[in-house]
Amino acid sequence: MHIIVVGCGRVGSELAMELSDEGHSVVVIDKNRDSLRRLTHFPGKTIIGSGFDRDVLFHAEAVRADALAAVTNGDNSNILCARIARDHYQIKNVVARIYDPNRAEIYMKLGIPTVATSSWTTGQVKRWLLPTDSSISWSDAAGTVHFVERIVPDALAGRPAGDFSLGDDVRLVGVVRGGVGRLDVEGLFAQEDDILEFMVTSEGLGRLSALLEGRSA
To answer: pTM of the predicted model, to two decimals?
Structure first.
């Protein structure tokens, strides 16, 4: 995937290095030349400039980008970057880092995924950038039962929530929609950008991945 990271502080540099190590094509944008020095042995491209400058985004090859993370230290800049990426370049997977949790909830309802600074982790941002990420949020002490979150694939939007539970190995236990979580999933139909929360066994991890990827579960 081709991914743009706007902002090269601790957050952006860590994210860019991890994505690059996983084999993705990564471009990092930052206004400060010194900030880019955080990227040691970084094989990707770096650009000095603003993440909402059209010329900068052109050089970052935004027209072919699969994802963009706006993780500067300014809420307004991050939201502006995210909106331009989504609305002008039609970048499918976009996430903005937000310091004010009240604003974060508003932007989530407007369809702009956000991650509040207080709860930021690389894994949470990657969940939006890479919907097929197979990360596990929690496992029991024996490593046999896991809690995982997955974004609804476009192809499965509109399916009844019950279709995402697979016997005793995969159970849908919650849905996060518009930044608001709910446990009353019975009768719900999955919507684009919903986050599905599952409890799964080790055997169920493969079955869940197959279901979400459209393979036989």
So the answer is: 0.66
